[in-house]
Each structure stands twice: as structure tokens, then as C-alpha cells.
Fold each of these.
Amino acid sequence: MNIPLAAAPHAVPAEADAYKHVAGNLRTVLDRIAAAARRAGRRPEEVTLVAVSKTHPAAAVQAALAAGQLHFGENRVQEAAQKFPALRAAHPSLRLHIIGGLQTNKARDAVRIADVIESLDRPRLADAIADAIQKEGRAPALLIQVNVGDEAQKSGISRADTDRFVEACRGRFGAALAGLMCIPPADADPAPHFAWLAGCAARHGLPVVSMGMSGDFETAIAHGATHVRVGTAVFGARG
């Protein structure tokens, strides 16, 4: 799933003037992604930036779109449903990733609006997504979220159950199952967790490995990330 980092610039709406810093931040992050990829012996275009726009207004997203950014991540389906339909109408190439924990009763809304759901983490949610795909007649790309640190407070399938869950989801969703996602423990070296996730994805022939955020995305790239989810370094502090 080789997705370009950026696309041609769009016109900047007047309401985006308060977010002029976003274009410069994007350039800096993309430069860091490119440098990290080269250090790892990889091509920069192998890594896709997902700009995490959760809690930021549509004007911030418009500023990023004007700078060529196409992939955006949102935690909450409700917020995404309010923010992105108009943005997508103006920018058909926009790609929306749902990256936060997903309740089963929000699965249909997520399937309706998202291009990628990165937080498939349990059998009941798989059931709800499968039902929603049938009803909506569209299938977003799906990533299984793995709780790589086996932390009680975090969402994600356990490491021990990952292989079995991947195979079950592959049988159910086919090519829509695109890869794996993780958030490593905050107080631990992320490198071993990133290496484990990339190895698991490779073992199952899954092309997408979504890992790494503002504080550790360069380490994630060194260990095989294909997608990095960066918010603060692009948009600044959350709104």
C-alpha cells in the first residue's frame, strides 16, 4: 500500500490564515520522515504521513490540505463526521483514517465515512464492521490494532491472540485487511515493540504497518513503519 507523502497544493481558504504554521511544520516533518527513511536504507515514498487532526478545527485541516497533505487521522467518529464531509467534497483525494478506539455501535458510521479503520481490535467489533460493510456496500481498509505491551488500560488484541485474529479477519475481510497498528507503552523503549509488529505483519504478508507518533516516528521508520501518525508536530498543541 504505497501512498505518496504529499500531493499538489490547493488554494488556501481565508479561514485557514490562523494556521499558517501548519505548512512549515509539515515540511519539517516530511523532511524528518525522508531522512529517517534514508538512514534505514528505505525510500522516503515508502512512508505515508497520517496527520492526526483530532480536536483541531476544519480550518487546520484545510491549511494542511493546501500544503499538499492528504491523509488525516481522527480518534472519534462523531468528530470526523462533523468535520470531514465538506472537506472531502472540496478535496476528493483526501483520505480519512479512524485511529481511536471504536465502539461497536459506531462501526457503521465509521465504515460510511472512513477510508481506513486502524483500530480493529476484537471479534465483536469485527462482527459489527462486517455487518456495516454489507449494509453500506463499501469496505474501508482495515488495520488490526495490537496491544504490543499487553497493557490493561489500552485497546488492542493481545500479542498472544494476534496470529489467530489476523487469520480470522483475513478469512472474513479478504484484501480489505491491510495491516497492523500499535501504540507502544509510553514508559518503554518503543523499538522492540515496533520490530515485533513489523515482523508480525511480514509473517502474515500484510503490507501496512502503522506505528510511530510525534515523539518516536523516526524510530518506527527505522523498524519498518509504512504509516506514521503525527499530530502535535504538524498542528501544534491540541485544540
Amino acid sequence: MRSALRLLLQIFAYAAMAALLGYFATLPPYQYGDTERTTIKLSISHATNRIEPCVPLTQEEIAELAANMRRTEACERERLPLTVELDVDGENVVSLIQAPSGVWNDGPASIYERFDVSSGRHTVSVRMRDTARIEGWDYEKTETVDLAPGRYFSVTFKAETGGFKFR
């Protein structure tokens, strides 16, 4: 009798846990974003140019280095800040200057911004400077896109593939 009661309580406990798990798996419903607007995500991680240009080493300087440390150039570690601007329909929505990561400012500068805009047709422009130039931009892209409601539109960057990519 005692083992039958124990078995029933165990079945009840498992059923209650399964019901609780099922409830939280389906309810309350999760809404990713505003269903009437579009979310634009700007995601960039890029290593900018070095502050000081690399200096070529002479054959004598290379020979003085340990065998595992030999290289043809000597480069300072510190990199320039990354400057990025993003416009939607001519209105500036992101304007950032991001310092490089790392203890010696020698890593990539990373930017992640997200914001909502009204759905529909928009002109998106993005510009980036990763060199020491004062004026102008090293990379630019402008495109007219149709932004669907409740969807995400991402702006990413890879120098190896030619620059900015809109998706």
C-alpha cells in the first residue's frame, strides 16, 4: 500500500513538472520586437590602421633578433580609433568614435547599435574611417531598401569582402 501511494505521488510530481515546463515553453508568448517597425542593427568589429607606420628592418637588425622573433618590419602596437556614421533618409542616427580594444589599444574596435525605424522604403547610408585622414571616408555605402515590419535589417562590415554589407 505504501509503495502504491509513493508511486502515485511520484507520477503526480512528474506530471506537474511536465505541465509547468509545457506552460513556460509556450506561454507567455515572446515578442522579438515591435511588429509595426523595423529594427536596424549595426555590427562592426574592425582593426584600424596603426598610429605609426611599420618600419622596415635592415638585414643586420633582423640577424640580431632571436630566430623565432625574426620579422621584416617593426610595428608599434597602438591603433587609431574607428569613426562610423549611419544615416537613414538623410538623418544621422549613429555617429560614433570607438577606441580599439586591448590593454595597449592594439585590438579591433567593436560597435554594436540597434534602433527601430518605421517600415517601408528608406535610404540607408553608412560611412567609416579607419585611417588617420581628417576629412572624407575610407568606406561608404548608400542603398535604398524596403524594410518589412517586424523584421531585422543588419549592417555589417568586412574589409576582406569589399566593405559594408546590408541584409
